[in-house]
């Protein structure tokens, strides 16, 4: 199968399945050489990658301009165009994030557990790289660099499918990163793109079980659901957040107001932004006027239950009647579903019914309520008297993140360097056998 | 959908998909009530389950006799019949293993990471139950009890598909365990079987994404591969072991002999038994006669390369020429593939080509060889001067095991109680918002 690599048809097979498998195989070989690289080698490469990106700013911006032009022609939304856009300032920021990753501790080689058994066998459970990490994502070229950097630091090769909308920019970025790796004596195959194979390539990546160790989709709900459904490679599901804030009867209402506003409006269109507000009935008539007015000021459209609609109407604030669908909707926009609930039990029941398991918040003065909420809600992150926007690798001290896992296997919540590793048991004896 | 539960058609829907989904839903509800149960409640239930099994010995043995009879009629192999058989002594041992699980620390609630951030946010990453654990396994009724016990201790409900060959015994065991749970005030739905739905039920279990949190197949290679391929529920792959022992030139040959014999013959038909032996060329002419004679004495059939065949023939020992297929074969029997390799590099290359990533062993006196083997072989467990049979939850001090994971995601190597949990971030503030 390797025969086609150097064929006259070019360095890679034309067939998407064979091409992606060849790329994944090369990634596996490259990953082997990185698995035992020491931290200083990896950090030097991260700095070289950062320098190379900055040095290639003009070329990257030019390629990105082609992507932007194509996007505008195809009627891409302004928000998405903004995410896609690369400026010299943004490239500097992306390079700076690589240097930050260089400053983080190396997860590889950490002894997670260890002991000497009564029979004298010495045990160590070590953190080791996964090997080959596949990533399927949408039009955000910064993800290309973030994943390459986190992958390198954790000892992994990455195979990237960045989406056609960002293809020109990503192609330059991947080449520049590969050249930087080569100058540090590391294989350029540590960072490879399969964009040339289009959608068929993405499907081939999902089928490359045995060649790719883990696949992380990052993007909208439909992308993630497709990967979860289609992939034979183990997947870490990320980032769908139907996030709730519950304001309990004992809440400090000023804190509650700030937390609701911050959770909904500090940044819109992100998975840790609030999508539903639940208010305890006992304080609804006092708190709703406060929060509805403040949300109105920030142009947030309210989808309310009857109690909320009555409050809004008394304040002459427009509000839409919430349908069953609203309780499950991740708006990713300046919209919020609002419901009054009779008590904590009803709040917990509502959240259990509609949660996507990402982040759930309670604002309360009651220790019992806080403990019940913490125990009884099953989500990656529980916020007690804090904004839902804190569910973020940087905010939680992980240094950087690959995405936010909403599944229970392997990684839950923000995925940092440790979540890109697996472990290996090393058992050392002196001729030990089992009796 | 719940309407059918109490319908005249009986407590469960007749349709396998609906039936399994209903069972999984009930498991989810039961798991919620267990998630916050304290250790003493769970340990009391484990003891009650052990007592109930012993008290029901006669009934279990009787039901098992039906399974054995059916097995014999269908021509089941003696080895499998032996695994299927339950005697009063075996039931006592199974009950004892439940009491051992009661003695293990509770993994739930452990703070895995925690800190107070510079902004005053207090972080805890807590170990919490998965929720609903599905298990698909073959005719070993002890697994029914092991999984129920480990699941209970780790706060999970289990949904079991134990295979038609063990159905009569498993049915009694599941009922007895459920009754014991009920006497402790815990829901019987914590331990449920889907055997009544046959193969269609197993397929429905693999499709029950969202209702089942993780699915663990345990059994032969074809069972495991089917589950890995078909399941939409996240799977932890277990137990395929193409296990190698490499005897380096600097090995203590008496140790090497004991380790090879123990790895191959201490117990046959288990995933951590050796299937291939690699011998460094420099000591082959001295070591092969020793090891071939000893293996011959223990009735081990040798599949050898030319060097090995020459040695065997010089000793008048029968040996078969190894084919390419032999290097990939998990014999699970008194057979061993034997190859002479020129050096450590060739041994590493051979193992990399054929490993299933379970356990790989080196016998050596060289620190450099040991370190290279440890670093360069990618497997769940590396044995240095120790038998491969030590890759076992009990042997490695985990107390008990659900199986041995050969995948890299979530769990690698023996899966104990911690591997049946996930984590949850709890972030406590005092009105914190993101600037």
Query: What is the CATH superfamily of the largest domain in chain A?
Result: Aldehyde Dehydrogenase, Chain A, domain 1
* CATH fold assignment of the largest domain in chain A: Aldehyde Dehydrogenase, Chain A, domain 1
Counting copies of identical and different chains, the oligomeric state is homodimer
Query: Within the largest sheet of chain A, what's the order of strands?
Result: 10-9-11-8-7-12-13
Largest sheet report of chain A: 7 strands, parallel
Q: End-to-end distance of chain A, in Å?
A: 46 Å
Q: Into which percent range does the helicity of residues of chain A fall?
A: 40-55%
Strand content of chain A: 15-25%
Given as residue ranges, the uncertain stretches of chain A (5+ residues, pLDDT < 50) are: 1-10
CATH class membership of the largest domain in chain A = Alpha Beta
Number of domains of chain A: 2
Compute the number of helices of chain A: 15
Largest interface by Cβ-Cβ < 8 Å: A-B, 67 and 67 residues
Pfam family, one (chains A, B): Aldedh
Pathway (chains A, B): Amino-acid biosynthesis; L-proline biosynthesis; L-glutamate 5-semialdehyde from L-glutamate: step 2/2
GO cellular component, one term (chains A, B): cytoplasm
Main location (chains A, B): cytoplasm
